[in-house]
Amino acid sequence: METAMLLLQHFTKTCTKCHQLKKFKYFSRKTSNKYGLNSQCKQCISIHMKKYHIENKDANNLKSKAYLEKNREKVRSKNNEWVHNNKEYISIKNKEWRDNNKEYVKEKNKQWREDNKETLKEKRKIYCEQNKEIMKVKAKIYSKTEIRKMAHKNKDFKRRTKTKQGDATTTQLINLKKRSKVCYWCNVSLKGKIVHIDHYIPLSKGGEHTLSNLVITCDRCNLSKNAKDPLVFAQSIGKLL
Question: What is the CATH number of domain 2-53?
Answer without folding.
Answer: 3.30.60
